[in-house]
Write a structure and sequence with these properties.
With 159 residues, the chain is an alpha/beta fold. It has one domain: CinA-like (Maf protein, Alpha-Beta Complex), CATH 3.90.950. The chain has five helices and five strands, in the order αβαβααβββα. A five-stranded mixed sheet has the order 2-1-3-4-5. A hairpin with a 4-residue loop joins strand 4 and strand 5. Helix 1 packs across helix 2 and helix 1 packs parallel to helix 5.
């Protein structure tokens, strides 16, 4: 969390100045980004809420999915996670939304990627998506690395 708090503070400052809002859909980050954002004074001015989607069943239930968030998209790909971010943005009515799927470790994802792999999607005025590969199976370290990458992606788009 120590690395995430300063990044979340920058995000909070920029979003508040712009009068914009943020929603999250986390998976292997496990709520770390949400916690770092809620720790910011005045979080209610920019932070609308988050989900921690850890299973396909949870994603179907919360997002009312009948299949992938868009036709012919494979999980743990940038287009898939970008579509999930857009769903979160629409459902919560936010300016921006971050979504993340990954394999924090110690094993890889059932979709194929090895541990230490996450895909982060950003929906909003400047959409973006990235794939993060740490090369590590250290679960806690990967969760923090994924969270930092998500906040950095948002900061880059807010610049």
């Amino acid at each position: 969390m120590e690395k995430l708090i300063p990044l979340a503070a920058e995000v909070a400052e920029r979003l508040k100045k712009r009068g914009e809002t943020l929603a999250l859909s986390e998976s292997s980050m496990g709520g770390l980004v949400s916690a770092a954002l809620v720790a910011q004074p005045g979080a209610s001015a920019f932070y609308l809420g988050s989900t921690v989607i850890y299973t396909r069943g949870a994603a179907r239930a919360l997002y009312d999915l009948k299949g992938p968030p868009a036709p012919d998209l494979k999980p743990l790909t940038e287009p898939y996670v970008a579509a999930m971010a857009e769903i979160a943005r629409q459902k919560l009515g936010s300016t921006w939304a971050l979504a993340e799927m990954g394999a924090s470790g110690p094993s890889g994802s059932p979709y194929g990627p090895p541990p230490g792999t996450a895909v982060i999607g950003l929906a909003g005025p400047r959409p973006a998506a990235i794939t993060v590969s740490t090369g590590s199976a250290d679960r806690a370290a990967n969760m923090r690395a994924f969270g930092a990458a998500a906040l950095q992606l948002l900061l880059k788009s807010l610049t």
